# Entry
Amino acid sequence: MPHAFRFGVQEAVLPAPGWQARVRQIEELGYSTLLVPDHFGPQWEPIAMLAAAAAVTERLHVGSLVFGVDYRHPVVLAKAAATLQLLSGGRFEFGLGAGWMQSDYDEAGIPCDPPPTRIERLDEALRVIRSLWNEPTTDFDGRHYQLRGAQGAGALPAAGAPRVFVGGGGPRVLRLAGRHADIVGINPVLKEGRITAASAADLAPDRVLQKVGWIREGAEAAGRDPASIELNALVTELHVSDDPGVARRRIAEAHGMSEAGVAGCPMYLTGSLAEIHDRIAQRREETGISYLILVDTGEPRLVERFAEQIVQPLRGK
# Structure
């Protein structure tokens, strides 16, 4: 059986004053999760933002999308995640990634190692964090982390440890995600350390199927059932229209894609409501993607329209 549809919204900042009302509105609109990215610059600090959002809601999950493994030691992250899980009553989704945005590394003066090294570090960090959640003490001898008698991360609620969310675009990180994650985000490869005009083309339907295959390979190699993993995609643009040609041509020209490629790319939802709903259902059937997260770009009423047109008719089905 496929996973039921679930929807989230990613917010880097909230209105201040008025952030409490906005978070509660997101909950009332029917979103499953409020997710926060982890970058430097003007966005709000994610741990503080997630704790505050959990405190003023009752059902809304909160999640990191995703913490950069190079910005915080896994011992620190394990304790922060355990505390967020406890304070939220089991509503925290722990997203962790290998890091990708070159400007973050440049601004903070953090060395940006080649992707294989960062992915190896992510693998070690996930093993360390799982142990700190589950064991009273942890010893670990890795290339990147060495722990001696590290104390457990602290009490967890009855719901247990947070669900782990790992996203990526290439075979190494997606196979790793298949080994470790409860939720996997299917993203474009970002070798340049930034989102480019060509990024979306890496999420053409055939590429998505290939990426899902890498996740399954990782899960099976670890003795896991691939069907137990919830698959995710980010939605960056929504255009509901009975005549979506203009929007598709604009996106196609900007990203070096065909109009058919735009229509099939999970980053974009274009067309009539009936067409969009059919495409989402077909994509879940073909790929398993059931968890869609809207990136709030600041377009007026985007979060509300997405909820009214997509979330409310489809969630839980």
User: Anything to note?
Assistant: The chain has a mean pLDDT of 96. The longest helix spans residues 115-134. The chain has one domain: 6-314. The first strand starts at residue 6 and ends at 10.
